[in-house]
Amino acid sequence: MADTAALDTPTDINSNAAKTVAQALNGILADSFTLYLKTKNFHWHVSGPHFRDYHLMLDEQAGAILATTDVIAERVRKTGNTTLRSIGDIARHQTIKDNDAEFVSAEDMLKELRDDNLKLVEKLREAKDIADEAKDYGSSAEIDGWIDGAEERAWFLFETARKG
Amino acid sequence: MADTAALDTPTDINSNAAKTVAQALNGILADSFTLYLKTKNFHWHVSGPHFRDYHLMLDEQAGAILATTDVIAERVRKTGNTTLRSIGDIARHQTIKDNDAEFVSAEDMLKELRDDNLKLVEKLREAKDIADEAKDYGSSAEIDGWIDGAEERAWFLFETARKG
Amino acid sequence: MADTAALDTPTDINSNAAKTVAQALNGILADSFTLYLKTKNFHWHVSGPHFRDYHLMLDEQAGAILATTDVIAERVRKTGNTTLRSIGDIARHQTIKDNDAEFVSAEDMLKELRDDNLKLVEKLREAKDIADEAKDYGSSAEIDGWIDGAEERAWFLFETARKG
Amino acid sequence: MADTAALDTPTDINSNAAKTVAQALNGILADSFTLYLKTKNFHWHVSGPHFRDYHLMLDEQAGAILATTDVIAERVRKTGNTTLRSIGDIARHQTIKDNDAEFVSAEDMLKELRDDNLKLVEKLREAKDIADEAKDYGSSAEIDGWIDGAEERAWFLFETARKG
Amino acid sequence: MADTAALDTPTDINSNAAKTVAQALNGILADSFTLYLKTKNFHWHVSGPHFRDYHLMLDEQAGAILATTDVIAERVRKTGNTTLRSIGDIARHQTIKDNDAEFVSAEDMLKELRDDNLKLVEKLREAKDIADEAKDYGSSAEIDGWIDGAEERAWFLFETARKG
Amino acid sequence: MADTAALDTPTDINSNAAKTVAQALNGILADSFTLYLKTKNFHWHVSGPHFRDYHLMLDEQAGAILATTDVIAERVRKTGNTTLRSIGDIARHQTIKDNDAEFVSAEDMLKELRDDNLKLVEKLREAKDIADEAKDYGSSAEIDGWIDGAEERAWFLFETARKG
Amino acid sequence: MADTAALDTPTDINSNAAKTVAQALNGILADSFTLYLKTKNFHWHVSGPHFRDYHLMLDEQAGAILATTDVIAERVRKTGNTTLRSIGDIARHQTIKDNDAEFVSAEDMLKELRDDNLKLVEKLREAKDIADEAKDYGSSAEIDGWIDGAEERAWFLFETARKG
Amino acid sequence: MADTAALDTPTDINSNAAKTVAQALNGILADSFTLYLKTKNFHWHVSGPHFRDYHLMLDEQAGAILATTDVIAERVRKTGNTTLRSIGDIARHQTIKDNDAEFVSAEDMLKELRDDNLKLVEKLREAKDIADEAKDYGSSAEIDGWIDGAEERAWFLFETARKG
Amino acid sequence: MADTAALDTPTDINSNAAKTVAQALNGILADSFTLYLKTKNFHWHVSGPHFRDYHLMLDEQAGAILATTDVIAERVRKTGNTTLRSIGDIARHQTIKDNDAEFVSAEDMLKELRDDNLKLVEKLREAKDIADEAKDYGSSAEIDGWIDGAEERAWFLFETARKG
Amino acid sequence: MADTAALDTPTDINSNAAKTVAQALNGILADSFTLYLKTKNFHWHVSGPHFRDYHLMLDEQAGAILATTDVIAERVRKTGNTTLRSIGDIARHQTIKDNDAEFVSAEDMLKELRDDNLKLVEKLREAKDIADEAKDYGSSAEIDGWIDGAEERAWFLFETARKG
Amino acid sequence: MADTAALDTPTDINSNAAKTVAQALNGILADSFTLYLKTKNFHWHVSGPHFRDYHLMLDEQAGAILATTDVIAERVRKTGNTTLRSIGDIARHQTIKDNDAEFVSAEDMLKELRDDNLKLVEKLREAKDIADEAKDYGSSAEIDGWIDGAEERAWFLFETARKG
Amino acid sequence: MADTAALDTPTDINSNAAKTVAQALNGILADSFTLYLKTKNFHWHVSGPHFRDYHLMLDEQAGAILATTDVIAERVRKTGNTTLRSIGDIARHQTIKDNDAEFVSAEDMLKELRDDNLKLVEKLREAKDIADEAKDYGSSAEIDGWIDGAEERAWFLFETARKG
Ligand SMILES: [Fe+3]
Ligand SMILES: [Fe+3]
Ligand SMILES: [Fe+3]
Ligand SMILES: [Fe+3]
Ligand SMILES: [Fe+3]
Ligand SMILES: [Fe+3]
Ligand SMILES: [Fe+3]
Ligand SMILES: [Fe+3]
Ligand SMILES: [Fe+3]
Ligand SMILES: [Fe+3]
Ligand SMILES: [Fe+3]
Ligand SMILES: [Fe+3]
Ligand SMILES: [Zn+2]
Ligand SMILES: [Zn+2]
Ligand SMILES: [Zn+2]
Ligand SMILES: [Zn+2]
Ligand SMILES: [Zn+2]
Ligand SMILES: [Zn+2]
Ligand SMILES: [Zn+2]
Ligand SMILES: [Zn+2]
Ligand SMILES: [Zn+2]
Ligand SMILES: [Zn+2]
Ligand SMILES: [Zn+2]
Ligand SMILES: [Zn+2]
Questions:
Q1: Could you give the C-alpha distances from H77 to B64, E152, H81, in angstroms and in order?
Q2: Which of E79, F64, G24, G116 is deepest in the core (most CB within 10 A)?
Q3: Residue G82 CB neighbour total at 10 angstroms
Q4: What percent of chain G is predicted at pLDDT more than 70?
Q5: Residue ranges of chain G whose CB lies within 8 Å of a chain H CB
Q6: Which chain D residue shows the shortest CA-CA distance from F140?
Q7: Alpha helices in chain C (DSSP H)
Q8: Within a domain: residue D95?
């Protein structure tokens, strides 16, 4: 994802600062696609008496995550940098782990996603500071909503994973 | 994606036949996510006088591809098998190639996607025959629409990539 | 439901073949109304901590079943035959059993409906072959969607009835 | 449909009174499903120069009848009783007769449904008095609308069946 | 909430009778706001494996309660009296108890709301008789729907709080 | 509006009782059309600093009145009687007075409509008792909503016509 | 409907010319309300095998007529004149005749309305010329659409009243 | 409509097979435009007591036919062939006959369209077999729906043209 | 399209004048269907880097043309004449030429349609004068909008066909 | 705004006549933008007890004015001329005066806008005659609606500015 | 509202900092419910010539305030703390005063709400700083919108309460 | 735009600070209207093979700019200052230049707008800092979105203006 002259979009943001924001956003984009896939994985393979309830909740959460991805990628483009390009590109940048287990209990699904979303919150909070530093206010304001969304998912998952 | 007793959904389709359909569909699912990402990649990085027109066309095509993924995965689940689970799982099953080049001309984008979609048509036509063989009529009928969609994308990309 | 001259709709399908399709579809129609009523029965009488979740799921499934009934009946009419006429007519043709028990546990509800839907899938798959035999492509294509719907209901019911 | 301890919903309505309302409503529910089926029967088998007009009118009327059934059943449940459970249960409680004739003229269809709807109005008016007696105001108010609906259907059918 | 000359709306209902209806409705309004807050309290603090299902059910129930409040208050105004004015006014008129406990189990939440809604049904049934006595038919008809709503909430809560 | 054999709709309501309800409803229909026209008259000719506010309020009120007229007329028809037929028929049955003055002040408009609506409430309350007497529950329940509507219009007009 | 200083709206149209347009439009308004009522009369009292078809057609036509009335009245007001004020005002200006007959056959209803609508077309065509003369282009353009509407109603009524 | 190198869309379907499908589809397209025009012709010129009912039915049928035309043409284009180009092109390929008679009775209109639609069903059934032969699954699946539509039109027309 | 007694709709427009308008409108109708088909032809066969942009523009323009056809035909019918009946009828009346060429460049498509639309504008302007002459204001007003539409299409096509 | 060869759109309207219409329309466009800004100015700065009522009315009026601007400009372009290009261009062509006063009373706002709208009506009526002269029927018909809109605004403003 | 181990939602925000934000938000929540009730109080009891205008404005403002409450409460929950539980809890935390006066003039209503909203703005601005301090960006961004909303209400109320 | 006592809206923001924000926002408002007009200018006068694509893009961009103007102006008003009043006021405050050239090539249009939007981004980023300084959080948050919008427009324009 190095910057290439051919793709520069002009911007009045300092170009080094913009590149740092881009790096942070591209990392978040990789994790968002990873978390989207994992949430869909669990949406497809969940089982047990809460099947429909969790199947729907995971679909809603996957949808909410996916809805952020185009915005993230285009924030990077609008500020003069390039973004992710492929499944392989995601794999090289993701910090959230895949879970390819044959069987995961519903409870373990909830807990793993809760932790992944909290990890995403942390990365978003760091990116927020980087964006503010760069005076990249357009990105900074979007991040606020992404944090709220990830905190909401973590709350739902945390409460659901608890003993009643 | 081997079949696991714990996740078997009961079906009256012969279980070996169903597994063969599942293998075909899971391969198509991996390619669909790959093609989705590549189409978004080009949606984000396209440049030149047709920018808006191609940017919109690629977004529409990416949206059409993504819309098939949940249906593909759930056809596999409804017929007693398991489906993809992660970015890594996609990477291991994809046959369509990533394109991580720093710069791709608009014309090359159109041609590469045209070829990828035609390749997808071929795989879908094979999966159709496998599904019919297994009397998996639910999957077979869905495949018809996915073929039409991929052929439409190939037509648009082919005509657009031609010299006027 | 014997064919009566007074109600013949003209069709180019061989009339014996059409009558065979009609017999298969009328049997499926009787079972669909029976399953609709049983699913509503359980929607009304379900109880326990998953009440709302199952109450909603059963309403969605009942709605999906009912939505097929007018289409089934009119496929029979469009191909020159007559269809069901009354509650008694349904009773005489149904193969899915009524359940008039005073109390059924939520878990038993799910399992019974799962089995009924799988039985319906089998009958639909047989009807599909009959329709293809008769070159009644209009009916054949509709059956594909009904199979997918019944398989989806069976999947939801199967996963929900499992131990978490 | 006897009351069973296991399914009691608590209510402050006197339980004998509530049971009497439930019996009236369950009878109306059986007749409503019967009338729905007969109206669809005629919607499917009507013939002659007014085909489309009557086909549509009967579909609208069937839809209006069906729309009352879930409300009827749930009024019974909300006031501590149980409701119908199956096609057989409907058959045992219906007072409106099935019509399984091979051929019914359009005019006879209109007249038979007119009489059935007027009979339903009578039963609804009796149930209204029973509900008011039991201070079951929730049911009583719903009955008002069902009476208006049945009177509207009877009016349409009566006027249409008359000599112009 | 004493009547004040300055705010009289003219009405042909006997003014003492109207005032009695107003007193009943204002009491119900206070309890409705109290129950709304308690239902939102539980919507916010519920926990355990049914979190999403109950969180949604409680939100729907709170929404249904809130939707009655403006209608209640304006029925009082339309018939020449004054209604509630503040949080303190609610506190002085409420008969449903607050629950300020640090922790309430999901099961206890359901049971407490079930009892509160049944209590509300009783008050509504009394208000219905008062409104009918006063020939305040506009209020009387609205109460019918509020009773049905509270009975529906009680039914959902009762069934959900039962052992499966 | 005498009853004519040629137009009788069958009904199980006692025919004398039904005719008495019809007479009451036809009178209310005449007054409703009269009040509709007067409200539109004022909507068209109102003037002064509150022009837009009153112009809109009067249009909303006229719309609410008009919305009741088809329902009133069809309640009469559904219960076996005939209803109004012309402008002249309205003129012969109206009890609310026309106002053909060249100029009416905004304040006088509000006061006159307030009194007309209160008069309509009185007539509706009488018709309610007649309908209940006749066990014409369909009409009785509709009247409840018409009373609420007229009381709401009277409240708005009363408050607006007061000194601030 | 004489012009009154107190209600003059300023306009650059010659005031005599505007008054002539107003007289024409007010006459059309009276006839439009008359025709609306007659069309509703027939909508309510029509009978015979085409009941639903004609009942719907007459409701659509009545709705189309009513939709023009507010526009007519406000064109008069916008060009500095006053418009109709009451049922009595309509009665004094209408040229289309009331029909208060106890019984009108469906065929006679169609023919009478056909003639009334054609008469309305004539008056509209005259008003068009008066408006053009006065350079009242706003009114003139609206009249075009009203003519088309009345011609459409006349066409439907003419064709329907013909022997098949 | 011969194949021209300049317009080839790439496809993996055998090109001779694809051309055979294209010929069948182009013939159906010509007949669909012809039937569309004839159905509109009758929609415009129908007369008699069922005018509105048939006028509407014919408009719905014409709309349903037209809705297939763009899909037919684009199936031909997506599979590497060219489609119809003009009114003259339609005239040269149509097998359904024009009807330019000055007057056609309503009954004759219904019968002629019934026969035309049944003829279309036959051609569609043949095209289906050709498409399946060519493994042109996208076209084959679309044809299923077109058959159902034409059978539905034939049913409506057949029943309506019968003696009541 | 000669006038036939059997199909006369009564109108107060002079019948010779109406016939002249009808002849003009029927000619425009033939050209509109011709232009619709040609625009669809180009929508289907266009090629080159602007494929999607032109494909969409041509579809929008074809849709706009088609939307006028039913209105044109029904204006003729409402004023007592008959209109087009078939593909052959269109062919006999069209003045816009078919283009059946195997290949047309995108630029030539734009230029040909630009000229055809300008030709249509001319014919519409002539028809306008004929309609005004006949005092056929309903047709005249519709023509205004059709002129605007054709001028808009010509503008788009003209600007697009120019060198940038 | 002189005509430039490079921007000519072909038209069959006489080019001098078209240019005269263009001049009139461009003047109206300048005044429309001016009036839009002034109406928004007053929407933003209005004060006093009618604040919300006038704030909303002025927003609706500003919205109605703005909605005409694109249509005006494109009428000029469709008939072969050029239109306004900038704020400065508006300033050079506007005849309606700016009002930059620090404070304007609500009453003065209403009166000034009333006069401005009446002035706009006058200019529109002149443009109408010019367009008719040029046989520019597309523009002429649009002007009708703009006149009606400006007359409606003037009526609202006039009545509101009057003493009650 | 002390923190309780049983209800902790995990968060990466420093827990003391989060608790401080929670305290600020809970105070704002109490004031928001208080202001909602007071605004509804005035919506119900307002009187005088601006009745409808103010009645609507107060309803819109009450709706806007209520819309923030669920978001406020859930921000507290998402960041690991507990929120308000009852009417009594609101009463204990509110700083905005109740107004239980028998009569409040419209002008006094506007002024009191203007001051209350400005007070709310102040508290929101303080909470913003606390949230920023805690790096609770999700809350901080929501507060921005709540400030804008309260400032808008204050502006409307201030301008309306002024002498015109 | 000096502050005038008569128009002060109360605010707790320091009044000097608020005035500084107002000055910045009013400058941005002037430039936004200027850019809106220029973008519409180019939307109207663009020419060449990308006509429709650019015509649509420029309309979308103009719409996005206009959508910000009312919000900008009202932020100024809500914080106690006055905003722009006229076309002349815009002209006096705009820093973006008008372009009144007779002919501008499509490519030059794109480049000029790209630069203008980037200039707007700079001014917005400065205003953001001013608003934050003044603790005017309502304005500050709105600016974030306006920056994102302008950056998106610049990106589209930049990429489109590049050599493919
Ligand atoms: Fe995007
Ligand atoms: Fe899914
Ligand atoms: Fe049906
Ligand atoms: Fe239900
Ligand atoms: Fe309210
Ligand atoms: Fe009606
Ligand atoms: Fe109006
Ligand atoms: Fe197409
Ligand atoms: Fe038509
Ligand atoms: Fe435009
Ligand atoms: Fe919530
Ligand atoms: Fe605004
Ligand atoms: Zn985008
Ligand atoms: Zn699913
Ligand atoms: Zn049907
Ligand atoms: Zn329910
Ligand atoms: Zn209200
Ligand atoms: Zn009706
Ligand atoms: Zn109006
Ligand atoms: Zn297409
Ligand atoms: Zn039509
Ligand atoms: Zn445009
Ligand atoms: Zn929530
Ligand atoms: Zn505003």
A1: 19, 57, 5
A2: E79
A3: 23
A4: 94
A5: 50, 53-54, 56-57, 107, 156, 159-164
A6: D144
A7: 15-45, 51-78, 87-93, 106-133, 137-161
A8: yes
Which of K4, K40, K87 minimises the CB distance to E98? K87
For chain E, which residues score pLDDT lower than 70? Answer: 1-9, 164
- C-alpha radius of gyration, chain A, whole number: 17
J153 Cα to the center of ligand 7, angstroms: 13
Q: Kindly write down the DSSP assignment for every residue of chain J, as one continuous string.
A: ----GGGPPP-SS-HHHHHHHHHHHHHHHHHHHHHHHHHHHHHHH--STTHHHHHHHHHHHHHHHHHHHHHHHHHHHHTT-----SHHHHHHH--SPP---S---HHHHHHHHHHHHHHHHHHHHHHHHHHHHTT-HHHHHHHHHHHHHHHHHHHHHHHHHS--
Phi, psi of C95 (to 5 degrees): -115, -20
Q: List, in order, residues 6 or more apart from F134 with CB less than 8 Å away.
A: F13, F14, F17, F18, F20, F21
Asked if E141's CB is within 8 angstroms of D12's CB, the reply is no
Q: In the structure, what pLDDT confidence band is assigned to residue F163 with cuts at 50, 70 and 90? A: confident
Distance separating alpha carbons of residues C18 and L47, to the nearest angstrom: 61
- Contact: H125, C138; criterion CB under 8 Å: no
CA of residue D12 to ligand 5 center, whole Å: 31
Q: Please check the confidence at residue B5 and state whether its pLDDT lies above 70.
A: no
Q: Which domain holds residue F43?
A: 13-161
Looking at C76-80, H58-62, J9-13, which range is the least confident one? J9-13
Query: Is residue B32 within 8 Å of residue B72, measured between CB atoms?
Result: yes
Q: What is the CATH number for G49?
A: 1.20.1260.10
> Residue G49: its pLDDT value, please?
98
One-letter amino acid for residue A39 of the chain: T
List CB contacts (< 8 A) between H75 and chain B. 148
Question: Is residue D100 left, alpha or beta, with left meaning phi > 0 and alpha meaning psi from -120 to 50?
Answer: alpha
Ligand 24 centroid to residue L74 C-alpha, Å: 7
At a CB cut-off of 8 Å and minimum separation 6, what does L63 contact? none
What tens digit of pLDDT does each residue of I19-52 get?
999 999 999 999 999 999 999 999 999 999 999 9
Give the CB-side neighbour count of residue E162, counting CA atoms within 13 A.
20
Contact H83 I44 (CB under 8 A): yes
Residue J18 confidence class, pLDDT cut points 50, 70, 90: confident
> What mean pLDDT is predicted for residues D146-155?
98
Q: Check residue B8 and give its pLDDT.
A: 66
Chain L touches chain C, with at least 3 Cβ pairs below 8 Å, answer no
And the tokens for G59? 């409701």
Confidence at residue D3, expressed as pLDDT on a 0 to 100 scale: 37
In a domain, B5, yes or no: no
Average pLDDT value for residue range C1-22: 70
pLDDT in the model for residue A70: 98
Given an 8 Å threshold on Cβ–Cβ distance, is H114 in contact with C10? yes
The model's pLDDT over E63-106, given as tens digits with 9 standing for 90+, comes to 999 999 999 999 999 999 999 999 999 999 999 999 999 999 99
Interchain proximity F48–J164, CB inside 8 Å: yes
| Interface touch L138/K128, C-beta < 8 Å | no
Say how many Å lie between the CA of residue A107 and the centre of ligand 6: 57
Instruction: Report yes or no on C142 lying in a domain.
Output: yes
Percent with pLDDT over 90 in chain H: 87
What total of structural domains would you count in chain C?
1
- Please check whether residue F7 lies inside any domain of the structure: no
Distance of CA H93 from the midpoint of ligand 22 (Å): 38
Residue B6 has pLDDT above 90, yes or no: no
Q: ipTM score here? A: 0.95
Q: H18: closest CA among B38, B125, B93, K74?
A: B125
H or E, element range at G79 = none
The CA distance from F88 to the nearest CA of chain G, in Å, is 7
Nearest to L87 by CA among J37, J133, E47: J37
